[in-house]
Amino acid sequence: MSKADIVEKSNGGQDNEESNQSNTNVTDSLQSKKENDQTNKSPTTASTTTTATTISTTATTTILSCNTEGDEAEKPMSKSQQKKRKRYEKLMAIKKRRKQQDKDAKIAKAKAEGRDLDAERKLQEERTKSGEGRRKREERWQERMKSADTCFKICVDCSFEDQMTPKEIGSLSNQVRYCYAANKSSHNPVHLSVSSLSGTTYDNLTKVCGFPDQWRAFTCSDKPLLELHSEKSNVVYLTSDSDYTLEHLDDTKTYVIGGIVDRNRLKGLTTTKAKELGITTARLPIDQYLHLCATKVLTCNHVFEILLKYRELDNDWKAALLDVLPARKDITGISK
Ligand code: SAH
User: Fold this and answer.
1) Which terminus of the chain, N or C, has less C-beta within 10 A?
2) Is 323 a catalytic residue?
3) For residue 185, is it within any domain?
4) Does the pTM exceed 0.85?
5) What is the CA radius of gyration of the chain?
6) pLDDT tens digits, residue range 30-67?
7) Domain that holds residue 219
8) Atom 7 in ligand 1: which residue has the minimum CA distance?
């Protein structure tokens, strides 16, 4: 990825066509990387039909792997693979059923309100044809992005790949994807960057729709953190091990999330890194607002979403934490 170095994608109001033009160099270099990858594959791999799982930025369940149909025909699935497949299919069926239920409920609501759904559908089709729908979406995105330039930034530091297992790297890739999806749909998106992005994490992300040239408000690079954000005094490394608790978020700062999935195996990794780099650290004010029975070491995407929500919910930590943290963490709020 070194050719692309930095891919700035806060292009907001640009159409895909326009953005494709403005990112020609990046797209070219990525394209050539993809082509190189293809030619470097062994003949056997290249000759089998490879179906990379499509990962939509809105989907919640993803398998970041490639299936080679040839392999599947030869190798029977192990019992645990069969179990996993069954569980996955069950989940998909539930998801499909829920989607249909939501759709039915929306139709019922619209009918109860006396709306003419056929007319609305026709209007929608006309808007799609004329490009008005896209233009409106762009306008809304531009509007939401207005405050991003005067707001804090968030960076995910992916320099820890060599300390993670392939499975953990897969999870990290998904977490980066969730951060992007949360930012894109947020009322107040921020500038999101990813530093030291290379290796398998980068390869996994290239399978995601539109990455990186069509990802908005997004920058990624294989360069280290301080080359991307060189103003050291404005960088704060977030870590649950810090002695300092975040009281508020400062709009002049870049908050760094350690790109690590380690199931608590690699304690103190980010604190050590921040010390080495001479960067201040801070932890989320979880103890001040909640009783949490589970671990206070959160996933990258939860930390990201909490920062976004804090801003969206008028700088209210408690509301942001309650909104983002999953119920399984057995949370109770501390009354203040
Ligand atoms: N052992 C890892 C933990 C990884 S969790 C470490 O040494 O950091 C992924 C990242 O989310 C962390 O690196 C940190 O940046 C952020 N994070 C998780 N929980 C946090 C908390 N309670 N406060 C601040 N940041 C947190």
Assistant:
1) C
2) no
3) yes
4) no
5) 22
6) 334 434 443 333 333 333 333 333 333 333 334 343 34
7) 149-333
8) 269
